[in-house]
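haha ok so turns out i had the wrong file open the whole time. this is the CORRECT one, sorry everyone. sequence first:
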Amino acid sequence: MEQVSAAAQPEPTPDGRYIHIGGRRWRATDPEIPEDVAARLRSGLMAARRAVKAAMKTGDVAAEKLARSQVQSAKVALGERGTPWWEQSMAQRHERWERGLAQGEAD
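then structure:
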């Protein structure tokens, strides 16, 4: 797999809450998520995105809806959607990513 150069890495805002990609600002992943957990959540996110693409290609509306729900769950677990991670206590943050892992394993 090709490595992304340092120049292609997203530019974080000074407070670390957002990143800039292609001129747009996006919420950054919660930096407190342990790397092994974040990797599992990102893997689930990518699988869900592939499922969205496959469902759209076949025109399966129900499968697309389910896959989009899985994308949303993974993004929330990563802290990129939902209540901002910087507004949550560490206990709430931990619960959020553990719930995301559990949902990903149930799918």
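Helices lie at 35-58, 61-77, 90-106.
again sry for the mixup
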